[in-house]
Amino acid sequence: MRLIITLFFFLLTFSVSFGQKPQRLSSADIYDEIKELQVLGSALYVAAHPDDENTRLISWLASSKHIRTAYLSLTRGDGGQNLIGTEIAELLGVIRTQELLAARRLDGGHQFFSRANDFGYSKHPDETLRIWNKNEVLSDAVRAIRRWQPDVIITRFDPNSAGRTHGHHTASAMLALEAYEQAGNPNAYPDQLTELSPWQPRRIFFNTSWWFYGSREKFEKADKSKMVTVDVGTYFPLKGKSNNEIAAESRSQHKSQGFGSIGTRGSQEEYLDLLRGDMPKDPTDLFDGINTTWSRLEGGASIGKLLKQIELDFRHDNPAASVPALLQAYAKMGELP
């Protein structure tokens, strides 16, 4: 609840300070954030390195579904290449950290890291977990889940791909799966419980694609009975951009890796293979059956109704007219148990 009220406070001010220069939001931005206030669902995307994340999915969750979305990159990319300078190792990690933060400012996600070191290519996840110190990095992943409290976790890589790809990639999915199982257990990392509470996500998915199957033909023949398919090609009229264009701008922040890309418009499907948890009845909605409204909180239904009315009454020519009602909603949040 403290997290929700803090988020509301920052949205209510209509500006976020970066040093001495405030961010200037348009009426469209403010309207979008009022819509975002009405959704309490959250997601955590997990992978190994900066640039591993699927910016199309992160942007779609954050901007189209208004889901609180974060990316947990286990490393800062110290072991990668650098196409824009001479910095390597830790200095490259600093650059890639800033590239990730810049990407999140564009696609609407938040960013987490663990203490894992990108020591270069690894042939097997067993080697990766030994060098990383599995227990420490797993602790970081559990902490991120308990802090962010996601309803859904999504891995970029297949946890069952040992020996077939980069060991860091497989290890990141293995750790995400184990963290999913331990985050709700009060006996796991009890030292964290002085400031956090156990949290059990509802589902964890592997963000698969035809590439992981070797060919489009093999993917078409694959069993999709436990797969959710979502179309992330949403167009945002108030932004004048498609989700894929926003995702491309985010992806292009990974300049040191030469990852600039051109945005496109039109349908774009993403596939989510269920690893643990209940399968959504609607195979096109990964949050199906999960209450993402204010009614999930005791006494929260009236807040949801008030925020919806604020959205309906919003004046793009005078955003400040919403402030009294927003203050009323803020006061109601403070009364929640």
Describe this entry's structure for a reader:
The chain has a 7-stranded mixed sheet with strand order 5-4-3-6-7-11-8, with helices on both faces. The longest helix is centred in the N-terminal third of the chain and has 19 residues, at 89-107. It is built from 11 helices and 11 strands. 37% of the residues are buried. A hairpin with a 4-residue loop joins strand 9 (235-236) and strand 10. The protein has helices spanning 2-13, 27-37, 55-64, 89-107, 125-132, 134-148, 167-182, 216-221, 243-251, 301-313, 323-334; strands spanning 17-18, 21-22, 42-47, 68-73, 110-113, 152-155, 203-208, 227-231, 235-236, 241-242, 269-277. The protein has 337 residues and is an alpha/beta fold. Helix 2 runs antiparallel to helix 10 (301-313) and helix 5 packs across helix 7. It has 2 domains: 1-40 and 302-337; 41-292, Rossmann fold. The chain is globular. It starts with a helix and ends with a helix.
Q: What's a quick, concise take on this entry?
A:
The protein is of the alpha/beta class and 337 residues long. It is built from 11 helices and 11 strands.
Helix proportion of residues, in percent?
Answer: 25-40%
Structural class: alpha/beta
The CATH C-level class name of the largest domain: Alpha Beta
* Global shape: globular
- Give helix and strand order, one letter per element, not per position: HEEHEHEHEHHEHEHEEEHEHH
Strand arrangement, major sheet: 5-4-3-6-7-11-8
| Total count of domains | 2
What would you say the CATH architecture of the largest domain is?
3-Layer(aba) Sandwich
* Poorly predicted parts: 13-18
How many helices in DSSP terms? 11
Distance between the termini: 9 Å
